[in-house]
Amino acid sequence: MTASGTEGKADAIVRRLTGGYLCLLGILIALLPLMAISYLALFQDPKRRFEAPGLYEASSLLAIALGAFITYVTWRCYLASGEVFLRWLVLAFMSFTLIYLPHALLSQISDDMMDVFIAYGPASRLAMGVCFLVALERLGVPPDSPETRRRPATWGVALGIILTINLGLAALILNPLVRAENMIQAMEALAFVLLVVSIIVIILRRIRLSLMIVYMLSMAVFAQASVAFMISDLWSHLWWLAHAIFLAGFFLLSYGVVHAFHTTRSFSTVYSQAEVMEQLREQQAQTQEALAKLEAINARLNQQAATDWLTGVANRRYFMKQAKGELAQAKRDGTPLSLLGLDLDHFKKVNDVYGHQAGDEVLKRVTSVIAEKLRPSDLLARVGGEEFQILLPNADIQQAYEIAERCRLAVHDLAIRLLDKEVKITISMGCAQMGRDGNDMDSLMRIGDQRLYEAKAGGRDRVVTGAGEVFHV
Ligand SMILES: Nc1nc2c(ncn2[C@@H]2O[C@H](COP(=O)(O)OP(=O)(O)OP(=O)(O)O)[C@@H](O)[C@H]2O)c(=O)[nH]1
Questions:
Q1: Collapsing DSSP states into helix, strand and coil, what is residue 416?
Q2: How far is the CA of 385 from the centre of ligand 1 (A)?
Q3: Which residue stretches, if any, does this entry annotate as coiled coil (predicted)?
Q4: So what's the pLDDT on residue 275?
Q5: pLDDT in tens, 233-260
Q6: pLDDT above 50 for 292
Q7: Is the pLDDT of residue 472 over 60?
Q8: ipTM of the complex
């Protein structure tokens, strides 16, 4: 195995180990309240009391203020994202705040109302627990439309239900047929069960969203707070601890909401750094792929824009652009450069006798034969129907003539069969050299064309290099 392979394997093992360690840390943090509860319940006198209604009322009102603030922040997140999960989280915080309110206000009341005061505590946690579970069940469903989000009826109904709970609960507890203590314990136990079910749902549904870790931790902390409430007496140290644990759960969850508010305003689309990095990697790979495709398309388009559709050699536009560049370069370097004007002889006859398609075939064959005789640095272009230009860098008129002759002979020797007949094709060419015949492309092409006509006039199938000079085989 290679060094990088061994390193990769070691990396994978450490990743697994640290992943397991993180899991263990999560469980330990989630169970910290249980340690505090056990310490108080087992090693201290659980009956020790600290009766301070004034302090209690102040801290309860603070909790109400915090609840109202977090309800508002969650509502703002819901308005922005429309996430149904968040709608239920708003309802959870709202019901806690409004059901806990009478509990906070009634802490200094007379003893015969004590049960009513106590009952609002577990009732607020139970209502929250119900909403938490429904929120989980609604996680991932399509978001509410902007109109639905702002519909007052939703919140009006929720307020009505909460008010009914508040009034109904007082009536129930004051009913002599109901055993208040049992009812209070039952509500607390039910809240506990719902919170545990929420945790089980997150585990079974394998919800790996980063804020869901926070959600699950707070569910665990709330559940332990309920345990502490169930086993504690009013004003005992354990009872105060239960409140502190509940507050810790509330802090955790509110952290999640505030984090969502500062990022995507949706609980399910707040990603951990590892997830963001992964998404970034994926997007970078996609961008690279798209870029490579675009470059390939661009190259193909450029190639198409520069190429003659029939013969595949350069077209007039590309030739003119390249030729100007080569001319300037040759002038700078002081090297020779020549140009050949080329035309097929009596090509009209080919078309007339064998048809346009056969004519096309002849053009392709002749082009390919000429291309074979050129140097890689030469540039062959079809600039008209059966007219071509050949740019010859680093070639004086003598070398140009030799190349032209090579091409002419190759075409001359070409055997093309059309309609079962062997057809002879010839070409005529006119040469021009930079400096000798002109200093710009227009002059060189004009002189090249003039010599080409001279070659035609002289009997075709020949190359003309200068006034009076007519070469032929
Ligand atoms: N098959 C085919 N024919 C073409 C194409 N472009 C031009 N032509 C034909 O090429 C012929 C050119 O004819 P002329 O200009 O009279 O020249 P020529 O018959 O070759 O005679 P000389 O040049 O004097 O030897 C015409 O018949 C055009 O229709 C093409 O793309 N395909």
A1: strand
A2: 6
A3: 277-304
A4: 76
A5: 989 999 999 999 999 999 999 999 999 9
A6: yes
A7: no
A8: 0.96
The answer as to CATH 3.30.70.270 being correct for domain 310-471 is yes
Contact 199, 212 (CB under 8 A): no
Residue nearest atom 8 in ligand 1 by C-alpha distance:
385
> DSSP code of 265?
S
Q: Give the three-state DSSP class for 109.
A: coil
Contacts of residue 83, Cβ cutoff 8 Å, sequence gap at least 6: 77, 143, 144, 266, 267, 268
Give dist(CA 422, CA 442) in Å, integer: 38
pLDDT for position 110: 56
Sole residue written with tokens 């003039």: 450
Residues with CB under 6 A from ligand 1: 310, 343-348, 351, 356, 359-360, 363, 385-386, 456, 460
CA 200/CA 218 separation, integer angstroms = 13
List, in sequence order, every beta strand (DSSP E) within 361-426: 379-382, 387-393, 416-418, 421-423
User: Is the separation of the CB atoms in 125 and 246 below 8 Å?
Assistant: yes
Identity of the residue numbered 74: T
How many angstroms separate the alpha carbon of residue 190 from the centre of ligand 1?
A: 96
- In the numeric block, the tokens 């639905």 are attached to 148
Rounded-to-integer distance, Cα 374 and Cα 370, Å: 7
Residue of minimum CA distance from atom 5 in ligand 1: 385
pLDDT digits (tens, 9 = 90+) for 405-432: 999 999 999 989 888 889 999 999 999 9
- The answer to whether the Cα torsion of 314, 320, 322, 323 is positive or negative is positive
Residue 110: left (phi > 0), alpha (psi -120 to 50), or beta?
beta
- Strand (E) positions, 5-58? none
